[in-house]
Design a protein that fits this description.
Helix content: 40-55%
Oligomer: single chain
Strand order of the largest sheet: 2-3-1-5-4
Largest sheet: 5 strands, mixed
């Protein structure tokens, strides 16, 4: 009898264990499945939020760039303790007197100092009401009126040091020239110099200049917008160039644009990526035979240059 009871009890325990295991596995699978579903939803939502954050960052950057687009920062402007009411008027007079422009007070929105007061004059941020007027002022560095101050331009920064000419004149020091060492010349060297002098004197300056061609390459980082192209034009005012090979233009499509001072060719296959091209001075336009775009990384300029030979 006891044996029978023990066997029944053992079977009941086994059944209970089996049922417990089945229930545990079922509940575990159900919980895990539910967690996986929720985790997948959270992962998808996280991806969407990340993409939205990227879009919002781009929008914020675009808005900030748009807000700063019409700004110029002036450095080296003398600072007075009671200048705030007349600061805008002072900046307006400074620009007009230095550049020969005739800016109207309505073309300047605001002007204020940046940073905390110190021994050195703080920079002045000036907001223009129109972008093209800002670029007119940026071109002032090439203006001949800038003879009474030192001025140089950085990206969206016009650095002006007032009344520095007199100080620099005082700091100048006249150095005595050391006597040149006499070097005897051979008869052959004298004859060669005489021949070179006769040849040079028979060539006009214009013909000499026509023999010099300035060719360079430039990584633009981006020329997608008209503002970027205008910034490049301003930067190129400081150097001599005739032909520029351009990379990283980031303009899609293939096009030849006729500008006032140059011919602009560009080719791009992927929007916002790579892109190559050329900028060729306008006087070389009759010599251009063909622009050939191989890919968004390779472009070829076929140009006929009389007087220049391949070595």
């Amino acid at each position: 009898m006891e044996y029978l009871i023990e066997s029944i009890h053992q079977k009941l325990c086994e059944k209970l264990e089996d049922q417990t295991r089945i229930i545990t596995e079922s509940v575990t699978k159900s919980v895990v499945s539910s967690i996986n579903v929720k985790l997948a939803e959270l992962t998808e939502e996280n991806k969407k939020l990340k993409s939205e954050i990227v879009v919002l960052k781009d929008k914020v950057k675009f808005l900030e760039d748009g807000k700063r687009k019409n700004n110029l920062v002036f450095f080296g402007i003398h600072e007075n303790q009671q200048e705030e009411p007349n600061l805008l008027t002072h900046i307006l007079k400074l620009i007009n007197n230095s550049t020969g422009l005739s800016l109207d007070p309505k073309e300047l929105s605001s002007a204020y100092r940046l940073g905390k007061k110190s021994e050195n004059p703080r920079p002045v941020l000036v907001n223009f009401t129109s972008l093209w007027r800002k670029y007119e002022v940026l071109k002032m560095e090439t203006n001949s009126h800038l003879t009474w101050k030192t001025c140089h331009i950085k990206k969206d920064k016009l650095v002006i040091y007032e009344n520095t000419r007199e100080k620099s004149e005082k700091r100048k020091r006249n150095f005595s020239e050391s006597p040149k060492q006499y070097q005897p010349q051979s008869t052959t060297q004298k004859r060669d110099e005489k021949i070179h002098k006769n040849i040079t004197s028979s060539i006009t300056p214009s013909r000499i200049e026509n023999k010099i061609l300035y060719i360079a390459t430039l990584n633009c980082l981006s020329l997608r917008t008209h503002e970027k192209l205008t910034e490049l034009e301003l930067a190129l005012l400081k150097i001599n160039w005739d032909i520029l090979g351009l990379s990283e233009i980031r303009r899609i499509g293939e096009s030849i644009e006729d500008h006032k001072e140059y011919i602009f060719y560009h080719k791009g296959e992927i929007k916002g990526s790579h892109g190559v091209g050329f900028m060729v001075k306008k006087y070389l336009q009759p010599n251009i035979e063909e622009f050939k775009g191989i890919s968004d990384r390779i472009a070829i300029l076929y140009i006929n240059l009389p007087g220049f030979k391949d070595n």
